[in-house]
Amino acid sequence: MNDDPESDRRADGDDPSDDPTPDVDGFDRAPEVAGRTVLITGGAGFVGSHLAEALVGDNEVRVLDDLSGGAREHVPEGAELVEGDVCDGETVAEAMAGADLVFHEAALVSVEESVADPPRSNRINAAATVNLLERAREEDARVVLASSAAVYGHPESVPVAEGDAKEPTSPYGIDKLTLDHYARRYRDLYGLETVPLRYFNVYGPRQNPEYSAVVNVFFRQAADGGPLTVEGDGEQTRDFVHVSDVVQANLLAATTDRVGEPFNVGTGRSVTVNELAETVVEVTGSDAEITHVDPRAGDIRHSEADVSKAREELGYEPTVSLREGLRGLAEAKGLR
Description:
CATH class: Alpha Beta
CATH topology: Rossmann fold
CATH superfamily: NAD(P)-binding Rossmann-like Domain
């Protein structure tokens, strides 16, 4: 699991019968991005494919993906798929030719895999990003980059703001912090327009089922009849942000004047893992029990995004409550 919470630790206090299923394709607060040549690395994956859907109607969209974690069928009609490795310089140069806007979503997202193989994590998450920024310099293309709340490590207090201490506890977190530094320096040294976005716990349709995010795990366990296994006492807190709000933040970053600076992308509120499990049981109509297992070594106790900077400087406003998002995900998985 990744990140965050706030003093209000409810899944959402509203009556669930009043919560409409979120319109994942609406992105009502997202600005119009049109007439661009857009490259999305990792665009057949989770966040990338939702970005491609939001952009393909009004832009020339290319997707660069090796399909190791994404799926060909997630690339929307009208987008060009360049099948290849983001670590390959020639492939990146080919995919970026003529682009004026790049969304860099390709990454090795598993903390566990980064611990098992730090050189591979560095190659995919850090070195490939430097190469991509070099190609973007040649094209004079703005780059919006997927960073992570993993850069903060164990925060001293929550909510955590962009200027707070950064003590990443894994090679993945170190790589993402490296990405942030390169984004700023490419802006300062070369005038390249870059915007790194620090994602908190993103969830929603199309998330790779092999990625052991807690929402994925709980839905799989509910579908199997349970039990839902909560690590430790379940009072650790996280800030879960729906993928449609992450797309909103990316589109805002594509049009902002505030370049070179990182922005947190979460909801600004958190829930306990116990509350998450209870809500998954509720929205799926499952009879599954909730049980507790040994805590995960090194697990972050509390995580929650301070999104005030994104609100004030980007115009970002999260719109999907956790219960809304989980209900929509249950429907997408055929569990309602």
